[in-house]
Amino acid sequence: MKETEKKQVILYTDGACSGNPGLGGYGGILLYGEHRLEYSGAEQETTNNRMEVKAVIVGLKRLKYPCKVDVYSDSAYTVNAFDKGWIYAWKKSGWKKADGKTVLNGDLWEELYQLTKLHEVEFHKVAGHADNELNNRCDALARGAIVELRKTLPIIEDEEN
After folding, report:
1. 139 noted as active-site residue
2. What was the pLDDT predicted at 150?
3. 158 is catalytic
4. From the candidates 24, 25, 28, 139, which is the catalytic residue?
5. Contact yes or no for 65/8 (Cβ under 8 A)
6. 129 included as an active-site residue
7. Which of 116, 115, 143 is nearest to 128 (CA)?
8. Which of 45, 120, 124, 129 is catalytic?
């Protein structure tokens, strides 16, 4: 492989939230050849959409060199931002939507935008909670991160009961 050729990486991601807003988690799987890296994390007061975008950011930041990355996500919010060109319009307008309102999660979108300038990223939409083994594993990682975060917090009401 030539030095200028970028390595091909696959990134699966998912986000989850217990309450929306509420406790949130994200999970991802990076695949390169025979190598596999799973990661997850959680935040206290967040939304599902933030966790979906955060999952992609964290995965891309794990890469040591500029790569070609195929991102697989069940988040229409994340995939459509690139596939439908929303993010380019938001960036051009100073992170404002067509109606003049500030883009939600602009801090994350700006960070993700910068990472897509470093890496060649292509987004792919997958069905959520279906038979995609890697998407299901990312969901489990995200939900597991919420469970672990909940254990570290003072007693709180379980919003799911």
Report:
1. yes
2. 93
3. no
4. 139
5. no
6. yes
7. 143
8. 129
- The alpha carbon of residue 100 and the mean position of all alpha carbons in its chain are separated, in whole angstroms, by 25
Written as one letter, the residue type at 23 is L
Q: How confident is the model at residue 161 (pLDDT cuts 50, 70, 90)?
A: very low
Band (99; pLDDT cuts 50, 70, 90): very high
Is 107 one of the annotated active-site residues of the chain? Answer: no
Give 148-157 pLDDT, tens digit per residue: 999 998 875 5
CB within 8 Å of 2: residues ≥ 6 apart? none
- Structure confidence at residue 10 as a pLDDT band (50, 70, 90): very high
Catalytic residue among 24, 25, 27, 52: 52
Secondary structure (H, E, C), the chain: CCCCCCEEEEEEEEEEEEECCEEEEEEEEEEECCEEEEEEEEEEEECHHHHHHHHHHHHHHCCCCCEEEEEEECCHHHHHHHHCCHHHHHHHCCCECCCCCECCCHHHHHHHHHHHHHCEEEEEECCCCCCCHHHHHHHHHHHHHHHHHHHHCCCCCCCCC
83 is catalytic: no
Catalytic option among 14, 25, 43, 59: 14
Q: Is 52 one of the catalytic residues? A: yes
Instruction: Say yes or no to pLDDT of 123 above 90.
Output: yes
